[in-house]
Amino acid sequence: MFNGEKPCQMDHLDRILLSGIYNVRKGKTQLHKWAERLVVLCGTCLIVSSVKDCQTGKMHILPLVGGKVEEVKRRQYSLAFSSAGAQAQTYHVSFETLAEYQRWQRQASKVVSQRISTVDLSCQSLEEVPEHLFYSQDITYLNLRHNFMQLERPGGLDTFYKFSQLKGLNLSHNKLGLFPVLLCEISTLTELNLSCNGLHDLPSQIGNLLNLQTLCLDGNLLTTLPEELGNLQQLSSLGISFNNFSQIPEVYEKLMMLDKVVMAGNRVEVLHLGVLNRMSHIKHVDLRMNHLKTMVIENLEGNKYITHMDLRDNQLTDLDLSSLCNLEQLHCERNQLRELTLSGFSLRTLYANSNRLTAVNVYPVPSLLTSLELSRNLLECVPDWACETKKIEILDVSYNLLTEVPMRILSSLSLRKLMVGHNHVQNLPALVEHIPLEVLDIQHNLLTRLPDTLFSKALNLRYLNASANSLESLPSACAGEESLSALQLLYLTNNLLTDQCVPVLVGHPHLRILHLANNQLQTFPASKLNKLEQLEELNLSGNKLKTIPTTIANCRRLHTLVAHSNNISIFPEILQLPQIQFVDLSCNDLTEILIPETLPATLQDLDLTGNTNLVLEHKTLDTFSHITTLKIDQKPLPTTDSTVTSTFWSHGLAEMAGQRNKLCVSALAVDNFAEGVGAVYGMFDGDRNEELPRLLQCTMADVLLEEVQQSTNDTVFMANTFLVSHRKLGMAGQKLGSSALLCYIRPDTADPTSSFSLTVANVGTCQAVLCRSGKPVPLSKVFSLEQDPQEAQRVKDQKAIITEDNKVNGVTCCTRMLGCTYLYPWILPKPHISSIPLTIQDELLILGNKALWEHLSYTEAVNAVRRVQDPLAASKKLCTLAQSYGCQDNVGAMVVYLNIGEEGCTCEMNGLSLPGPVGFAPTTIIKDPPKPTTPSSSSGIASEFSSEMSTSEVSSEVGSTASDEHNTVGLDAGLLPRPERRCSLHPMPTSGVFQRQPSCATFSSNQSDNGLDSDDDQPVEGVITNGSKVEVEVDIHCCRGRDLDNSPTLMENPPALCPEERARGLFFGIRRQNSVNSGILLPVSKDKTELQKSPSTSCLYGKKLSNGSIVPLEDSLNLIEVATEAPKKKTGYFAAPTQLEPEDQFVVPRDLEEEVKEQMKHHQECRPEPEPSEEDRTELPEEFDTAL
């Protein structure tokens, strides 16, 4: 009934038969000239539009049914398309080849010869229908959904009575405001859709549509229905959901052909069962998302007609439907029910999740009941009547207060799926007889052992999840020599299992997925693993294993091995497995890798981060080059400046695709943000879209930095950051949406007792949780229809259609997202913003997407990682727990460890003078600077190599905002030395000059296939440049002021400056020489305006990514140069900066010009420059490139 208003491109529509760009001439005469046009044969029409305006709705539509398709004899390969009717139009189309000519003639001839009955003109921005449609007397169905149809037009709605054979008319989403009364004269109508038009009432003339069978009025403002509607005795479907009805209209009593009352999303507060008793023809009642609080039973007379009732998302506290003796199915989820009473005569399915139930009464025992779902309630025991039912197949009582599982339930001869997770069950009853149970979920209980006969009596058991218990052993799989176990999926994560449990696993020969993470395993016997030949996924992370048995090579079907956070020192023999795809050996003790000459082509992801002693030769990296994603540690250089590393926070990130073949989650991590005085972390979840999160990952840090420069109010700059990002996505044509979470740590200027403050903003379902004194402190708000009643009411008030799966127009369950511009005003980009001062009691910050928090509570997540030393291992652990608890979707987790306190200060005080607000730091000479091709990095940061091109292609789109951090090349140490190292607790006084933040982007190198840069003689350590996507993390915020080995010489005789140039000040430009970032410093005699218009002369030193990496940069990869060479625009998606980067220009005050000239003449003598006085310094004017 409800249409999922999902966006679609015209080229993707199934009704397009042929399309192309050809020379077209309009009319039969030669008065018009030939012109190049886009020609589309779509359905039964020929659509002609200009190539430039083809996407703006400006087009000519020529109906071909009943018309002609003729050969044009005067022009080769040309056809004349003519419509039918007295005012027929003709278009001549000239094709280039004979094959095209024949293909179009053959297809168009079929269209011309058929008799059209259906015309689809939806989403065409029409105000009236083409006049020639009225000449076709065969049209029976007309779809005009999503247009702007008017009443009084030559082809307006008031003229539709001319369609004498019209039976179906769809006018939904046309913003009519008033019901077109003249439509009531189309007596042949059997189906009429007027949903989402802002209608307040219906005219009495609607009673003239005696043949009407389907009437859809959803999403309007109706409060009543006219009595004349009762004349429509053939009406079998009436939709009035999401209107303003306060009660069930009485006209339903007259409409005897109706069997459903569909009134979801109205304003009914009281349900009168007596009204339903008078409607003997009504069997289904849909009153979900109303304001139901009470139910009134007017008499003791039972209702024998209603079989299905949906009361989800209301405000009911007690519900007694025992008078509905023929009720077969009841939905009452997400109410506030404490007690529920039903009749069991005909009951087949009951869904009562997410209430406050303490008692569920059903009498008599429902002998036909097959499915019972009572999860997320307050039940202390399973109802007795549920134990006596004979046909129950599914029982879900998870997230309750159960202390035991009745023997009658577990031994039921019909039960196939039992969900008892998240209770307080201490033991399960012993099984005596064979049972047909196939799925058993008993995670998050207090079990110390499983029944000894579980596997021998439950021979059909395929799935067992006993994670998060206190199991110390496992029962035997069989009593005899041969096992009959059918177990395929076994999850035992987070227990107390030791090596003694491993031999028991051999008794399950069909085991495909085995999770034994976070137990106490020290060894895994090789002889036992050898017998698990069907194994496809093995998770042994979080144990104390030192090796993986070599017999794993016999698991020929294994495609996933996860063994992070162990003590493994020898790389397992897994690279010979024919189907291996994903290997995670991070956070171990690996030192070297022995690999075969050829790797399996299926290997896509290899994670070796956190192995601090692992050394990979360039040959090994070259062998790994074809792997889609390779993650390794980037080793810091001995000369790396310690200012790069913040002592106040460090982060770890983990992302896992789960059962899906693509990763739609991205993260942003900048440990040193805004010149090291803060940090930014983010999480983005695109649900089914992988491009959108990556775009946000690449740009939101830049947008935030720009907004921080304009406002110090956290609410203002965070809100503007989200709004600007949302606008850019819309301008880029992104129609889908993404959840977004952004956390910004900065020095706290408002609270003198606090060093830093944390500002968190989010839309969608990504959340952040702060651990303070061991307790979780939620900082985000979940914007979804199910978890936020206020947001659900707002969406209802905006007259959106919420489908039965709780999605706005069938698209998303979120009410606030970035993107989804076509769903405005239902979906908004306005974020929830919260700020909190950080104290010494704050231990860590956890960021996660929807999938993580669906399977882990805040308390469990905090307790799971607060004792883990490594943030990378902590984030890995969270993702592993989520997957073991049943998550099959993309899951992402980021853990930020906090160390807020004076003991973390790393300032170089030592009596040195503090730098001024602008200009030059105290004189310091760097003796052994790092080589320019090997960027510095902070310890423990990973590199990721990927051969996918999607992100690289995205980077070319967003390069204009991916600002680079420049090295000072060619400057004398006395002119611009290394600044004094300052910690985040005592930041350098700001100069007021805007400095762009490097974006997270991914670059693709295709300049060389030998692992070298195009101009380098030596390979770059840890970097592959053979066409693979390269991701290497480094913090480059403190790279300025470092000299390079190959610093070029300055011009010995700089040109004299004219008075005008002196007035403007002297500008220095860094000219790019090659890919190793060498440059020559030259005085540039251009004014500021000219500099802004010139191409960028900067060189890109490194780019930061969320998972952490930099790349050596070649000329073709300097995205900033490419972006600045493009035409500048004031607006646009990821528009290039409208001014020169502040790092690209060095302004010398007029009173220092002579001094600078003197230093340039004697720069080889390396004389230190006297520090200018505070009053002599002049600040650069603030410049911002913001989208607001």
UniProtKB/TrEMBL annotation:
Keywords: Leucine-rich repeat, Repeat. The keyword Transferase does not apply. Residues 934-962 have a biased composition (Low complexity). Residues 1157-1170 have a biased composition (Basic and acidic residues). Residues 1171-1188 have a biased composition (Acidic residues). It comes from the Eukaryota. Residues 924-1018, 1155-1188 are annotated as: Disordered. Residues 650-898 form the PPM-type phosphatase domain. PROSITE patterns: LRR, PPM_2. InterPro entries: Leu-rich_rpt (IPR001611), Leu-rich_rpt_typical-subtyp (IPR003591), LRR_dom_sf (IPR032675), LRR_domain-containing (IPR050216), PPM-type-like_dom_sf (IPR036457), PPM-type_phosphatase-like_dom (IPR001932). PANTHER family: PH DOMAIN AND LEUCINE RICH REPEAT PROTEIN PHOSPHATASE 1, PTHR48051. This is PH domain leucine-rich repeat-containing protein phosphatase 2 isoform X3. It comes from Vicugna pacos (Alpaca). The lineage of its organism: Eukaryota, Metazoa, Chordata, Craniata, Vertebrata.
